[in-house]
Amino acid sequence: MATPSQSIELPLTLHVSEQTKDALVERAAASGTDLAGYLSVIAEQTVQRPMSLEQICGPVYQNFLDSGMTDDELSDVLEKEKHLARAKRRAGQAP
Question: Lower Cβ count inside 10 Å, N or C end of the chain?
Answer without folding.
Answer: C
